[in-house]
């Protein structure tokens, strides 16, 4: 793990989509404007109105890796991604602020008509499709249920419909995708939101530059929560 060069601008790692969209107002409250948008630019490094800050656009699951290994000083990642990342890469990241953005929940879902509550009797065995393998494994272990994990990265809702899995563990926001695919939510594992993460070496070596940005995120997230 290392800190990026002190001669370079601070780098904030973000993923496209909901986290990016909900981070923009927090940056704007801090007086920082992103000069290009990822949906209208092919660039993966985006400038801001502050010369000392740039954004890099990476896959959501890669944000903690870029920050932990020093390719970015700071980032924003969901609790779900961080939980899976920290199993393989413990330490190396500060997580000072829950920004309360990109809120959703991690749930177990099954096909309509599947008798989940009978299926999860202690000592039973289920096939679970998910990309959140650590969360799924620990959840079912706490219930005394044996599981065969099937790791998928997309189209999770398809797995029960074609007999690949008995249930899925996935993120749910409105539930409309589940409903459209004849799935029902049967159990909530945990609530999810996105958090500010910081490279430990960068905090030590460039803390004076990072602290105003951290304070701005803190202030903006408090305002958003109380709004």
From TrEMBL:
What protein name is recorded for this chain?
ATP phosphoribosyltransferase
Top-rank taxon of the source lineage equals Bacteria
Q: What is known of its domains?
A: Lacks the C-terminal regulatory region which is replaced by HisZ.
Q: Where in the cell is it found?
A: Cytoplasm
Record-linked NCBIfam families: hisG
Instruction: Give, as in the UniProt entry, the pathway in which the protein acts.
Output: Amino-acid biosynthesis; L-histidine biosynthesis; L-histidine from 5-phospho-alpha-D-ribose 1-diphosphate: step 1/9
| Family (UniProt) | Belongs to the ATP phosphoribosyltransferase family. Short subfamily.
UniProt-recorded Gene Ontology molecular function terms: ATP phosphoribosyltransferase activity
Species whose genome carries this gene: Alcaligenes endophyticus
Residue ranges constituting the ATP phosphoribosyltransferase catalytic domain according to the UniProt record: 59-216
Q: Gene of origin?
A: hisG
Entry-linked CDD domains: PBP2_HisGs
User: Which InterPro entries does this chain map to?
Assistant: ATP_PRibTrfase_cat, ATP_PRibTrfase_CS, ATP_PRibTrfase_HisG, ATP_PRibTrfase_HisG_short
Family matches, as HAMAP family: HisG_Short
Q: Does the keyword NAD apply?
A: no
Keywords, A to Z, come to: Amino-acid biosynthesis, ATP-binding, Cytoplasm, Glycosyltransferase, Histidine biosynthesis, Nucleotide-binding, Transferase
This molecule's function is given as: Catalyzes the condensation of ATP and 5-phosphoribose 1-diphosphate to form N'-(5'-phosphoribosyl)-ATP (PR-ATP). Has a crucial role in the pathway because the rate of histidine biosynthesis seems to be controlled primarily by regulation of HisG enzymatic activity.
The beginning of the lineage is: Bacteria, Pseudomonadati, Pseudomonadota, Betaproteobacteria, Burkholderiales
> Record keywords: Transmembrane helix included?
no
């Amino acid at each position: 793990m290392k800190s990026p060069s002190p001669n370079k601008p601070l780098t904030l790692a973000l993923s496209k989509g909901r986290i990016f969209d909900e981070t923009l107002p927090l940056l704007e409250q801090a007086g920082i404007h992103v000069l290009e948008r990822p949906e209208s630019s092919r660039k993966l490094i985006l400038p801001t109105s502050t010369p000392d800050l740039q954004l890099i656009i990476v896959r959501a699951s890669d944000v903690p890796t870029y920050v932990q290994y020093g390719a970015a000083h700071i980032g924003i990642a969901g609790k779900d991604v961080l939980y899976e990342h920290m199993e393989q890469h413990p330490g190396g990241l500060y997580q000072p602020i829950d920004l309360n953005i990109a809120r959703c929940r991690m749930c177990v879902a099954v096909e309509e008509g599947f008798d989940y509550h009978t299926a999860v009797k202690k000592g039973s065995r289920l096939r679970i499709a998910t990309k959140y393998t650590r969360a799924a494994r620990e959840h079912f272990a706490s219930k005394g249920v044996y599981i065969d994990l099937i790791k998928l990265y997309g189209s999770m809702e398809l797995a029960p419909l074609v007999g690949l899995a008995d249930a899925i563990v996935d993120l749910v926001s409105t539930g409309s995708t589940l409903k459209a695919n004849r799935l029902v939510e049967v159990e909530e594992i945990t609530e999810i939101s996105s958090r500010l993460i910081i490279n430990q070496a960068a905090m030590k070596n460039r803390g004076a530059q990072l602290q105003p940005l951290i304070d701005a995120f803190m202030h903006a997230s408090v305002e958003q929560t109380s709004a």
